[in-house]
């Protein structure tokens, strides 16, 4: 079979093909588990899972940016892949140069994989977002070119929720200002406008993984919880869902934001919404920097309308650590720094050892499953498809993966090509205009693989063909 190694993984990168719209909502079915735990249970009775490889694993080139946790690096390196890990993001020109040769890229929140960058990624199979968000990736373009995208939607939820609880207490007691005064040598023991959080109302905007965990923690500390979300969600504990954002803003003593970056959420909290908040209330944003109109917040805090705020995210953020948080970044940075009772942190909501280790494991495991097995469970832009693993007892097997445009007649043509062989199992699913087919074929030789590959490559609907064996 070795002769087939260089012919079995040939992506299509034809930018002239018809552009299509694709739904890219994230999946709730992703789970935090290793490849072995994912496929091991029922297979233990059938033999040891067989490791499939698309070609010589030394040829798989992976680029990891933004200091991906060592746990993730170790998993990828142990597979025999060539892994280059950098501690920072890259300027766009350097990123384009690097991405041309890699099969896998791992990023966090600072790296922007837009259409201009992805057009140069001729060999790219998969993107790993070692974070919750995927708004930094053009998911539609990636799907239309057969590039799967994975993220970690759960692993740092607790870290962000705990940070928000800490910020609520810090703001209520003005701890930041008192600490800064003490560092300057000033003793200022006051109780005016310092509060317990027990009995106060927390308003959570976005009741997803983070918001719901925060709800439980806040109730345990004696707070009343209300929340607003664009969909109806079951409340945890005694929390109550508000019918409108305005209703939440009118009632909450503390408002915390946990929404994605979308056109609908840009400046979600601006002058009009700040005016609807209770006098002397507090605002916390640990979601995305574009959600809050910062100049409007500065004005509301200086007028006394808002008693305190905590911001962990900003519209523009530095690419690396250093003395970069100044007016050259957003234009109002130095003015923001001069406001009293405001907590400014450098996007550290998920930056705990536990969260980063879990994210490294979760995303790297997903990348390995996709590269070695073709499994798309947890992908945010591809149909979620899975077949049980082959076992070491099954020889002369190959797994055929065909990513194609979702147009009439494709499955009939694919089955005509596979019909000359014994197809043991097959599954297909679609998502918008992109479809993903996986089939396991038995008793195949090198010449059969060449024949299957040539047949699928010739189909006009083809986006990407892979054969794993």
UniProtKB/TrEMBL annotation:
GO biological processes: L-serine biosynthetic process
ACT domain location: 399-469
Region of interest (Disordered), ranges: 1-40
Any Pfam family matching the protein: 2-Hacid_dh_C
Top enzyme category: oxidoreductase
Reactions that this protein is recorded to catalyse: (2R)-3-phosphoglycerate + NAD(+) = 3-phosphooxypyruvate + NADH + H(+); (R)-2-hydroxyglutarate + NAD(+) = 2-oxoglutarate + NADH + H(+)
Comp. bias (Polar residues): 22-39
GO molecular function annotation: 2-oxoglutarate reductase activity; NAD binding; phosphoglycerate dehydrogenase activity
EC number in record: 1.1.1.399, 1.1.1.95
The keyword NADP is annotated on this UniProt entry: no
Key words of the record: Amino-acid biosynthesis, NAD, Oxidoreductase, Phosphoprotein, Serine biosynthesis
Entry keyword Transmembrane helix: no
Associated pathway: Amino-acid biosynthesis; L-serine biosynthesis; L-serine from 3-phospho-D-glycerate: step 1/3
UniProt superkingdom: Eukaryota
Transmembrane segments: none
Cross-referenced InterPro entries: ACT-like_dom_sf, ACT_dom, D-2-hydroxyacid_DH, D-isomer_2_OHA_DH_cat_dom, D-isomer_DH_CS, D-isomer_DH_CS1, D-isomer_DH_NAD-bd, NAD(P)-bd_dom_sf
Family listed: Belongs to the D-isomer specific 2-hydroxyacid dehydrogenase family.
NCBIfam families in UniProt: PRK11790.1
Physiological role: Catalyzes the reversible oxidation of 3-phospho-D-glycerate to 3-phosphonooxypyruvate, the first step of the phosphorylated L-serine biosynthesis pathway. Also catalyzes the reversible oxidation of 2-hydroxyglutarate to 2-oxoglutarate.
Name of the protein: 2-oxoglutarate reductase
Gene source species: Xylaria hypoxylon
């Amino acid at each position: 079979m070795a002769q087939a190694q260089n012919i079995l993984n040939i992506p299509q990168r034809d930018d002239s093909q018809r552009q299509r719209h694709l739904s890219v909502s994230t999946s709730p079915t992703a789970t935090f588990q290793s490849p072995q735990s994912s496929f091991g249970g029922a297979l233990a009775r059938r033999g040891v899972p067989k490791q499939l490889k698309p070609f010589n694993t030394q040829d798989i080139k992976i680029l990891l940016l933004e200091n991906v946790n060592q746990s993730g690096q170790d998993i990828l390196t142990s597979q025999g892949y060539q892994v280059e890990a950098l501690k920072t993001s890259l300027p766009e020109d350097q990123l384009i140069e690097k991405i041309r040769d890699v099969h896998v890229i791992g990023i966090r929140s600072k790296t922007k994989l837009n259409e201009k960058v992805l057009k140069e990624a001729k060999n790219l199979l998969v993107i790993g977002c070692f974070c919750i968000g995927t708004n930094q990736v053009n998911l539609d373009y990636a799907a239309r070119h057969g590039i799967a995208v994975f993220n970690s939607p759960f692993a740092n939820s607790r870290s962000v929720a705990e940070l928000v609880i800490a910020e609520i207490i810090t703001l209520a007691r003005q701890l930041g200002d008192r600490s800064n005064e003490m560092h300057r040598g000033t003793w200022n023991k006051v109780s005016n406008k310092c509060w317990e959080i027990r009995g106060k109302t927390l308003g959570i905007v976005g009741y997803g993984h983070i918001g719901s965990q925060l709800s439980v923690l806040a109730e345990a500390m004696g707070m009343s919880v209300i929340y607003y979300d664009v969909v109806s969600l079951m409340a945890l504990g005694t929390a109550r869902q508000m019918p409108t954002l305005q209703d939440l803003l009118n009632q909450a003593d503390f408002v915390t934001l946990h929404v994605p970056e979308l056109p609908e959420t840009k400046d979600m909290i601006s002058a009009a919404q700040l005016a609807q908040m209770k006098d002397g209330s507090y605002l916390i944003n640990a979601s995305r920097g574009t959600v809050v109109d910062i100049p409007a917040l500065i004005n509301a805090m200086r007028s006394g309308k808002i008693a305190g705020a905590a911001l962990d995210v900003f519209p523009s953020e530095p690419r690396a650590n250093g003395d970069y948080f100044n007016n050259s970044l957003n234009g109002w940075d130095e003015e923001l720094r001069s406001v009293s009772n405001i907590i400014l942190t450098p996007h550290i909501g998920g930056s705990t050892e536990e969260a980063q280790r879990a994210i490294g494991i979760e995303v790297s495991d997903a990348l390995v499953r996709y590269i070695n097995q073709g499994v798309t469970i947890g992908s945010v832009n591809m149909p979620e498809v899975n077949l049980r693993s082959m076992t070491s007892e099954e020889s002369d097997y190959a797994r055929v993966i065909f990513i194609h445009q979702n147009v009439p007649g494709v499955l009939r043509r694919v089955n005509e090509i596979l019909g000359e062989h014994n197809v043991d199992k097959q599954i297909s699913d679609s998502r918008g205009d992109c479809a993903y087919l996986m089939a396991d074929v038995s008793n195949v030789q090198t010449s059969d693989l060449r024949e299957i590959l040539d047949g699928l490559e010739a189909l006009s609907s083809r986006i990407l063909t892979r054969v794993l064996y």
